Amino acid sequence: MNLLRWSVLAAGAASLTALAVRARWAAAFGGPETCAPARGSARRGIAYALGRGLLPWEKESARRHLASYLAGILYHAGIFCAFAVLAALAVGFSLPHLIVLLLRLGLATGLVSGVGLLGKRAALPLSRALSRLDDYAANLLVDLFLAFALAASLDVRAAVPFMALSVILLLYIPMGKIRHCLFFFRSRIHFGRLLGRRGVLPPGAASAS
Amino acid sequence: MAETPTRKRSWAERLGDLPPQDLKTAIQTLADIIDAPSADGLESCVRCGLCAESCHYFLDDRDLRSIPAYKLNLIIRVFRRQIAGSGRPRRLAPGLDAATIREWADALYGRCTLCGRCMINCTMGIQIPAIIRKGRAVLASLGLVPDGLDSTVATARETGNNMGITREDWVETAAWLEDDLRAETGDPRIRMPMDAAGADFLYAVNPREPKFYPLTLTAAAKLFHAAGRSWTLSSRAFDVTNYAYFTGDDALAALFAGRLREAMDELNVKTLVLSECGHGFASNRWEAAAWLAEQFGREVKSVLEVVAEDLREGRIRLDPDRNPKTVTLHDPCQLVRMGGVIEEQREILKRSVHRFVEMTPNRKDNYCCGGGGGQLSMTEFAPRRKSAGRIKADQIARTKAQVVASPCHNCLDQLAELNKHYKLGVDVKSVLELAAEALLPSTG
Lengths: 209, 444
Description:
The complex is a heterodimer.
Chain A: H1 2-27, H2 42-50, H3 60-64, H4 66-91, H5 97-123, H6 125-130, H7 133-154, H8 159-172, H9 180-197
Helix pairs in contact in A: 1-8, 2-9, 4-5, 4-7, 5-7, 7-8
Chain B: H1 11-16, H2 20-33, H3 36-42, H4 56-61, H5 68-82, H6 98-110, H7 117-121, H8 128-141, H9 147-159, H10 167-185, E1 201-204, H11 208-211, H12 214-227, E2 231-232, H13 244-247, H14 250-266, E3 271-274, H15 278-291, E4 299-302, H16 303-312, E5 326-329, H17 344-352, E6 355-357, H18 382-388, H19 390-399, E7 403-405, H20 409-421, E8 427-429, H21 431-437
Parallel strand pairs in B: 1-2, 1-3, 3-4, 5-6, 5-7, 7-8
Helix pairs in contact in B: 2-8, 5-8, 6-8, 12-21, 14-15, 16-17, 17-21
């Protein structure tokens, strides 16, 4: 168990380091710098992009695909719950019962959502055609991560396979699409900055006055 | 014996016969022009496909190749195999083959108007149009710009404007328009000032205006005159458009934008005011500073901002009853979603027309008319352009408006074509035209 704990911590550190290297590499591309005078506020644009702009009533694509959108939210919430379970196991911290119950709920709904999204990707012809092996592998790996986290929260004997799987997942993160966990924020910030400066975001910022 | 001139090979011929060394340079070009927002975007796409219905091409044909994520992933595939992680093309990575280049050409030029609606709807906020533009730049570096767009850019490069209007013709046209204006208004003081040094602003126009739509040019002159504005045209540089914006060729884009900046300096004018042109606004207002590596920003405005300001400050008065028909507004993507000029045109129209109705959706969520991204120049994709324009045509029809206004000449051309193709039975007008029709004589 101790070896597994150290393996999880080492894999986590390796994953974070690899992500930092990738982010640094992407940032090194630089620019585009512009001195075109702003029409709006980059800061307000970024705040919108990372906040209100993610809500379904702000975005047509989320409204059109509300079920997928909600499944995505629950899936990601489940992933956070799984990491909470992993962190507790890795450092040997015993979680209060109520928290454990909430985590189980998050893990169960996250797992159902993840499996649903995987099924959708495989079943719909256009989604299937758009997908690559990485899309299935990442989803499957995370679904298993959630399933084992749930099992580990119910029965301590599942902790060993859960932690072993976590090592694989952590090492996979920077190599596959799951690295969007970092690049999501970077992309949203660029998006908010661009359209915030231009006065497009947040909506209403460009009111003629 | 006279030499037979070598015929320039067509776009399709060039695409069908790509030298292998070109493919290598294409990868290097891509590595050279990627910037941090693009690199982050290329690392972010999860192929969720939620962007699909944001694209008017996909809404029209339901084709996988029209999904923005599909188009983006054509570039991602090359980027990740060839560049990602190092920033330099990899020697051992699989090459960018001719089939991929042909697919790029069809998707990046033929299935995208760079309208940015996918970016607004992308879960990740990926700047898809900027990345597609970089893909187009790679194709441009290989000489693979579709013929129509290529010749538009070449005309602008060689003659100073995209319609090849000579300086003499331009000056003469402005002079006879000035005569017409004086005859029409009975006001001998109204002018189409040419090369007036020290004016408050330089007005740049779409070459279509002097060539085909002089009424929009005289409309602007009437409004400026009524407001008592000090303005000028330049005999040397007057073209607001920048078709290199659509080919991704930043060096040429800088050349075109730089001409207007130089004319400002020559005439000692501090502000550049841009006629009704979506991409002309996005390129001159937002992109030019980076293309030209300017140290200090220039004041660049849309004519809509100027007229809206004149209205607000009471320098001009409009009578909406002079435009009794119901009017709707098409938001040009590059001016609104990518440009931030969102409310001014509404402010002007609401005071210019008896009844104004919005399209749904509108503002940043509005659908592209289908004429953007250089599509109007690319005859190769004309059937697809008209077909995808159905989304806009349906949007217009739902408003039951009799007039469609738009502050963009590219959009006006496409809307006129959609009007005919889909038998919409509407009038298509620019915002300035409607404002000028509603203009009341100045009391000052």
